[in-house]
Amino acid sequence: MSSGEEVSSVSKRTLSCSTCFDALWFCYSPVHQMQQYYRLGTLDNCGGKWSALVDCLTLKTKRSAEVQEILESREKAKAHIWTFRTPEEASSNWKEQFGHLDEME
Hints:
- The protein has 105 residues and is mostly helical.
- Helix 2 (18-27) packs antiparallel against helix 4 (47-60).
- The chain has one domain (11-103).
- Helices cover 71% and strands 0% of the residues.
- The longest helix has 17 residues, at 87-103.
- The chain contains six helices and no strands.
- The protein is flat, with a radius of gyration of 22 Å.
- This is DUF3128 domain-containing protein.
């Protein structure tokens, strides 16, 4: 497999609604509901899981190229898990959050 074929196979995403269905099924389980009640004090209405399943099923009706474009645009729109700071920004943020610990000594 050449590097060009590797890139195209990595960029191709498969869309499986079974994970959305499994997440919805688990959402209605007593285990999940009791965890939510213990943690948040309310039961989960599973609305987000329903939306994800309906969205997945809707994407299944579209052409493959269109689905790839939609998935790529969604991935680009997601916020990155890490925020990168310059050393000055990191230093000022550190002092803001933990500067009071230096004053205790």
